[in-house]
Amino acid sequence: MDETTRNITRVAATTVVVTDLERALNFYVDDLGLEVVRDAELGPGMRWVEVAPAGGGTTIALLAAGSGFPPGIRLGTPDADAAHVQLRKRGVDIDEHVLRMGDVAPPMFTVRDPDGNVLVLVEGA
């Protein structure tokens, strides 16, 4: 196992783009029985909501259409900067810089696979 592999520790979340966040939240919580594990206002019009089965595990992030958040699978990493450097050395299609939003969200960056699918590496996730 090389250093890049060790820097990805788990599948943290997958995303679902929704047209009405409240309606989707009602469906996932009331109809499916999932629990809200995170519901945070990240800024004006930027709400981050995650749901999961009781007991935890990988979450589903409900992304409002047009929210600006990239849809895709979120992978956990203990060190976004180290993972970014290692993936860049390998020639992986990644964002130029690690995104930092201060105390609002952990450091993260986007990776695109050969077919253009988006993965987001999130520190501490």
Please describe what this structure looks like:
This protein is α+β, with helices and mostly antiparallel strands and 125 residues long. The protein has one domain (3-123): 2,3-Dihydroxybiphenyl 1,2-Dioxygenase, domain 1. 21% of the residues lie in helices and 39% in strands. The chain is built from 3 helices and 8 strands. The chain has helices at residues 3-7, 21-31, 80-89; strands at residues 10-18, 35-43, 46-52, 59-64, 73-77, 93-94, 108-112, 118-123. An 8-stranded mixed beta sheet has the order 2-3-4-1-5-8-7-6, covered by helices on one side. The relative contact order is 0.22.
Short précis:
This protein is of the alpha+beta class. It has helices at residues 3-7, 21-31, 80-89; strands at 10-18, 35-43, 46-52, 59-64, 73-77, 93-94, 108-112, 118-123. It is built from three helices and eight strands, in the order H-E-H-E-E-E-E-H-E-E-E.
Q: How much β-strand is present in the residues?
A: 35-45%
What coarse outline follows from CA principal-axis ratios?
A: globular
| Rg (C-alpha, Å) | 15 Å
CATH class descriptor name: Alpha Beta
Distance between the termini: 21 Å
Structural class: alpha+beta
Proportion of helical residues: 10-25%
Which superfamily, in CATH terms, is the homologous superfamily? 2,3-Dihydroxybiphenyl 1,2-Dioxygenase, domain 1
Global mean pLDDT: 89
How many structural units, i.e. domains? Answer: 1
Number of contiguous helices: 3
CATH topology: 2,3-Dihydroxybiphenyl 1,2-Dioxygenase, domain 1
**Main sheet makeup:** 8 strands, mixed
